[in-house]
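Incident review: delayed structure delivery

Summary: a single-chain prediction request sat in the queue longer than the usual turnaround. Root cause was a stuck worker, restarted by the on-call engineer. No data loss occurred. The affected request and its eventual output are reproduced below so the record is complete for anyone auditing the incident later.

Affected input:
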Amino acid sequence: MSLPRTLGELRQSPFSEARLRSRNVKDELRDNLIAKLRQDGPLFAGIVGYDDTVVPQITNAILSRHNFILLGLRGQAKSRILRALTSLLDPQTPYVAGCEIRDNPYVPLCRRCQDLIAREGDATPIAYLQPEQRYVEKLATPDVTIADLIGDIDPIKAARGGYEFSNEMTVHYGLLPRANRGIFAINELPDLAGKIQVGLFNIMQEGDVQIKGYPVRLPLDVALVFSANPEDYTARGKIITPLKDRIGSEIRTHYPATVEEGMEITAQESWTQRNGNSLALPKYVREIVERIAFAARDDKKIDKRSGVSQRLPISAMENVISNAEQRAIRHGESSVVPRVADIYAAMPAITGKLELEYEGEMKGADHVARELIRQAVAKTYDEYFKGVDMKQIVQWFDLGGEIQLADSVGASEAVQSLRGIQGLMEKIGKVNVGPKDSTEAQVSAAEFVLEGLHAHKRVGRSEERVFTAGEKPTKPAERVMEREEPFRQRRPYN
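Output delivered after worker restart:
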């Protein structure tokens, strides 16, 4: 069925005057949300880990017809959630064709549309908005002006049309009027200057804006949503109290609660489908990458107020795969199988996403990142090999054995050396890798075992990735002698 293209046709269609006059955008969001709730499906596609926390609060805000704000540290999907609100808008929304503020054909606000309907009547042309066209977003920066948000006089319009400056036809509408009959989002709200935040008062409480220099009020139909980082309240700016008072709901976001949720997000967001060799991404590699972010969020050397973005494991995973892909291309391997060595090679995707405290700055970002990877390897190793007897492997190194496993070494070369380590290849079955699996997978699993032993300090490893015997713990008697020796040397001088 074709859509009505004139005002006369529109009056005879399901887009009746009574419906469009009485139903504003917040009612529309509410109605479509209720329909989704009755279907008992996911409300927002691609949003992971918020089903029992954030999503119910957003649902309450929409059902209450509130303007709301999402508060959370960086990388907590705030912008993604706001953009997902368009899924609650109608698939087609009629407006007066050519109107800058997408006027309701039955209740036109701007002078241009009022004059057009008075002149054309039922022949007034009608166009339609898609849901994505009804979402307007603005990143708040200190240089944003009232003219950017609300509007101002446009001298070029006045000159070209021959209008007096007092004529309403000379108005240049800002972003907020252009979001009429849709959703207007402001990201990082505290970065907006206080005097500009004041300009939002009227639209949030009285439902209209006043454009500079004109005795005109525009009762806009718009849902306002915001995002902010709590750190911003003191670091760069703040949300002024009267504006906070006008925001209906304040909703806190958070990082993934479990490693499994984090892995699901990383798998969803990272670019893994390459156009080269086939990728076989081991689960333990995915777990290690995710645990790096979890370890960083608990580390005292990293600023918790800044947070550790979910972008860290996403970017790291992409670098891990790229390093494995590079190795596969160089050695002509048919399958790309990442190793733990590739995670260390992905440090450039980790260090730039860590805001360090004083202690971390003293140690350096590279040192902190290496320690995080080591912790993540140790925890993941315990998930697979806790309680497994590794004495035979450790003894092989204690008896003088050593092996070098650079991240650039091909699988066919590495597997020969790994098979020479007594008991090693028998243990990789714990990660579901057997003798029938590819050489690349066997090498990756075997290296994971060695890295796990190194993380627990049972096997040593140099920066050149040479695995050797680990340092032996000092005996208690020797430790006592070490403590007493300095005192023995100083006694003659007392």
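Verification: The CA atoms of residues 388 and 427 lie 8 Å apart.
Action items: add queue-age alerting; document worker restart procedure.
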